[in-house]
Amino acid sequence: MADYDFKTLSPTDFEYFVCDLINTEFGLKLHSYPAGRDQGVDLRQVDTQDKITVVQCKHYAGSTWSDFRKSALKEAVKPGARGADRYMIATSLPLTALNHTKIVKELRSLGIALAHDDVLGARALNDALMNHPEVERRHIKLWLSSSTVVEDLINSGRWRRTEALLEETLDRARFWVEPPAYAEVFHVLREEGVCVVAGAPGAGKTFLAEMVALAASREGWEVVHVSNSIEAWDLLRKDDTPRLFYYDDFLGQAELKITATEEGPHLESFIARVRKLKKHKRLIMTTREQVLRQASLANSESLSRVTSAPIPYLIALSTYDVKTRAEILFNHLYFSSLSNVDRRQLAIDNRIISLVQHPSYNPRVVATVAQRATISTSADTLLAQLSQILDDPHELLKVSFQALKAPAKELLLTLATFPARPIRLEELKKICGQDVTSLEWKEIWQALEPAWVRLAISSLEKSLAFANPGCRDFLLNLLDDIDLAGERIDHIQRFEQITALTQAAGLLRGVPNSHRFQRAELAYALTSRRDEIARLIGKVIQRELSAAITEASSARLLSEVAALAAIYGSIDSTRWLWNQISNINSAQRFMPVIDGLSLAVRLLDVPREDELEANLQIKSLVRSAVTNIATLRDLDAYESLPSDLHDAEIHDVARNKAALVITLELEQLIESTTSADMLREALIDLQERAEWYGHSLSFDAYFDRVDELEINSGDYTNWPEKPPASSLKRETVAQIRHIFSRLDDSTD
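^ thats the sequence. predicted structure below, dont judge the formating
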């Protein structure tokens, strides 16, 4: 008899479980939808006769009848509930017969189409589970909460090696979010008998493998946790006992283990044997992608055959999608020691959205920060800590970097001195000064894939880039050391390296995308060698300017030079730059608006010999750029100029250009925009611009179009099964908000 209290489920888990159970029990096709205009809906179905069924999920396992009643009545007055032909409530709260009858009567009095049997409390959910054991099996976090099930796993011998591992996995199971790779692992195990799960540090490969092992044990497979393939051979018997071997970090943890080549032949034979016996014997192994790459390059034919592409049984964990990221973070926050007040604060905090979409998002980071939270930790403090670690995941990469050999470290440190973009392999090898053969060079950079770097191929060129921003940030933090920074400065060969290091030091805060953290020792190492760096800039930039293809690229380079000259330059060392600006103005060359105005602004801080002449040259640049205004982005650049960089003559030119740009933009908006909200926002912006430039333009007809779009949009009570598509950004944000809104549900 099922007797779950559902406390190991988060509100999101509970909703998925309820959706599965009700669909199976009642033959429905309910779906979950993000929060929107159709409020009061968790699960919804529209059948072929346009009959609407709505289910409200209330995960109140540890709460009170009063809280549940208050919430249920609040949801019932929303449009989604009132427009339903059939309304159902599923709650983890145990309901007495009296309370059951009471809530039905109260909701019916509000006009809700609610049948008595359509209110499902904890007992009703458990009774339905008795009829559908397949639903119970599908929701692993549900049955893992049962002490009976856990004792059965241990006592039946289906989990061998260590009870500690089982207990640890069970303890972490409440944080589990099923990624797309979960089903894929089972498929590979069925088809190949063996599955290798590879991923970057903290990507969740071990957790995934352990949850697969637990699910297999529930299905009658004996799970054997092994530490080497030699040991595993002793447990591989040709019998009909279903046995799953679990081998974590089979090649080593941070680096290829010393015994890997020795174990290679045994591992190869073991894998081959398991694949032949896949009906009753299976093997799941985990490894870091970096270590897998090292193994493929190791001096062992057997190890190379096991780990070199193509590997039919390999699953490389990719970046989590936004939904999975949000649910992982949600689970850790929901089951943390935070107070209910702080949970509710997190439910509406917009910073959650940027954290979920952070380029360096990592489940291990999320778990680490959430586990540190206490009842006294504020929501603001927790989010700040999480943001800081994601911006600088030093600890997660430290062990991996220390295990690398010197040539690989040199490659990474050199790559870190460049901007965060792909660098040609040929150029990188030359700058690194690696005195190695082409084959040795290939082995160096391949050993870093894909944990540290990724290969980008275009045409016949191959380039390397960091696997994620966190890798570069970690290395730049290492360079925040006077001695290490000095070595890097001595190896500079490209102008962009100077720019990148100056940005990383925090000396170029006015440059877009500059790092917001000051690296004091790196900054000191750079500024203490001002004259040397200024001469280096003058030396390397001439070559790059001559190679510039367009006026835009030339102006962009000069703009970066000006920014650096303001930091490192002197009157003598910047004289060549002012001569270059004078030549551009004299030649009356085309000056791109954005790059030209950026150059003018940065020249303000460059040391000059003649103040008056310098100001004239800057004004000439501005005038030349303004004559080319053609887009709203161009107007943005002009409007952000310091007031002392334009005069009446320049503003008149900009004013005339603005009238043309605004008129053209209005015409395009009316033709292409079908969203009332988007059109309104755009019109308000254009109206404000027109007023700023002193233009009297009528916007009444355009705002009438907004009203038409709103009227035609109607309501959303007849949404199809799949919500209408919107912009990716808005849809993603809505999805994240929907997940975290459940933090407001109290389970205490």
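The CA atoms of residues 373 and 382 lie 7 Å apart.
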